[in-house]
Write a structure and sequence with these properties.
It is built from 16 helices and 15 strands. It has 366 residues and is of the alpha/beta class.
């Protein structure tokens, strides 16, 4: 691909959620220096590749103010060749941006908003440690975004939350569907070591209940016109996230900001996760060069998450290998069991296979 994507990391949040292990902090004392350093690095970067998508993640990008986000975006738009119809996303949490800020962002070029709703039940928000917003705040954010002109909105949902039941999940699904987003991401809660929630050792729904919740999400979203194009992502036709698809399809991308990753060809770069080092301006990037086996394993792992699966012609072109011959045993095992579908052109997981995707993917790459 003779194009790329840009990710901008904004490591500031109104408060740190109990389950979060991302590189983020509520300490905004460095924000102006950080934005200045970001803009400096963006303007210093040179590439002939055109940019197909731009994604501001975090943290909570909108927490630093729409004016600062617009300054960063302007630096990108003036320094890079931007493709027509470039998807430009900002993550937002309820209560961190008002209607005026959203209008400013839309005017500057942002055309997609990704909002962390997570649940429509106050008790579940509290269980997650999301104390900075209410369910009502979430609905208001979406209404304001529509009024500001956003026609492409993603809402995040979580399942497997402490105290969550099929009934409360159904309530959250109804709440989200009522807001009519173009895209919905649904993630199972994972307790990451070192987070406050991990230390609390909460009682989570058991594996069978969590699997049933995932099936419940799939069924309800499918019935309402959302296509599952990746294990955790559902979209109305034409609204699949172009930026995330680039990651899953193995395309190049450039990362700016604390702990941000970049991929160019077979080489991965990682910027420093230490604020002081990052602000020094000369922190070295950590470089990892993937060998052929590493690229192949990554390709298979990412593509089996997609509903389209592995494209055999593309696989052969990239790795000079015949997918059917190399994985004859695995293909037979999972197609015979009804967990996968194998055609002349592709190999992909069935609806049943999605529930055991980790096991299947591991069998292919190790």
């Amino acid at each position: 691909m003779n194009d790329t994507a840009i990710y901008v990391h904004v490591p500031y949040c109104k408060s740190k959620c109990g389950y979060c292990d991302f590189c983020s902090s509520p300490d905004v004392s460095t924000v102006d220096a950080y934005v200045s350093e970001l803009i400096h690095r963006i303007k210093a970067y040179k590439t002939e590749q055109s940019v197909k998508s731009i994604y501001f993640g975090g943290g909570t990008p909108t927490y630093i103010g729409a004016d600062r986000l617009c300054l960063i975006l302007d630096a990108i738009l003036s320094n890079f060749s931007i493709s027509n119809g470039c998807e430009i996303t900002a993550e937002a949490n309820p209560g961190t941006v008002d209607i005026n800020g959203l209008k400013l962002m839309k005017k500057a070029g942002f055309n997609r908003l990704s909002a962390g709703i997570q649940t429509a039940n106050e008790s579940e928000l509290k269980a997650l440690g999301r104390v900075s917003h209410t369910v009502t705040d979430g609905a208001r954010l979406v209404r304001n975004a529509r009024e500001a002109g956003f026609e492409n909105i993603n809402l995040d949902l979580m399942y497997g939350i402490p105290g969550q039941t099929p009934e409360s999940l159904d309530h959250s699904l109804d709440f989200v569907l009522q807001l009519k987003p173009e895209h919905i991401s649904a993630y199972a809660l994972k307790l990451e070591e070192g987070t406050p929630l991990y230390k609390q050792k909460p009682v989570l729904p058991d594996d069978d209940t969590t699997a049933d919740m995932y099936a419940q999400i799939n069924a309800k979203l499918k019935a309402n016109g959302y296509n599952r194009y990746e294990i955790s992502n559902f979209a109305k036709p034409g609204y699949e996230s172009r930026h995330n698809l680039r990651y899953w399809q193995g395309g190049d991308y450039i990362g700016f900001g604390l702990a941000a990753a970049s991929l160019t060809g077979n080489t991965r770069y990682l910027q420093s996760p230490d604020m002081k080092e990052f602000l020094s301006g000369n922190a070295p990037d950590v470089v990892e060069t993937l060998d052929a086996a590493g690229r192949e394993a990554e390709y298979i792992m990412l593509h089996l998450r997609l509903s389209s699966g592995v494209d055999k012609d593309e696989y052969k072109e990239k790795f000079k290998l015949d997918f059917d011959k190399k994985f004859e045993k695995q293909i037979k095992t999972y197609t015979d069991g009804g967990f996968a579908v194998n055609t002349d052109k592709s190999f992909y997981l069935s609806d049943s296979g999605i529930f055991v995707s980790n096991t299947i993917i591991t069998d292919f790459i190790y």
